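INFO batch 0412 | record 1 of 1 | parsing
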Amino acid sequence: MKRERTRDESTGTIWALSQVHWQFFVTIALPHVPGVGNRAQPIWNGFRGRLAKEVRILKRRPLLWVVALEWGKSRSNPHLHALISGLPRELQPESLIRAMEAIGRKLGTPDVVARTYDDRLGAVAYLFKEYDQPHPRLSSSDGRWPMISDSVWNVLRRHPDSRSGSFSKGRADA
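INFO prediction complete | emitting tokens
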């Protein structure tokens, strides 16, 4: 039996996820083909797997991510929005952005746009904007979207004071 998310659950999740020190906001355009909604998850898995391999992320430093499927204003522009963290800080953001764009080309996606994360833009809430209301073409009702990596919850669990509101953003990192 499926269970719909409530507005309160989404708000609590948004608050918790906003405590993570995100590094990048990424948009991955998806091909305009029938059934692309069902192929979005494998495309995301391929992207994040190649990214982890490209920057040689070790198991002791997991990749943190949240990803959501969106169809765009005209409902004909499917794309993924993702927040990413856990990438090595010693690498220049510009080189990581170029690596993400190259991965998108290798996967055959129409476009990948990666930007360094800016807290002031409210990207966490943006990823959840379509999930407070049912959407006829979106797979959100099956519980898949947005997807949140286990590593994000593990990081937040290591910092229980984050739930009290006395959380330091610099601490919620892999």
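INFO post-check: The chain has one domain: 7-171.
INFO record closed
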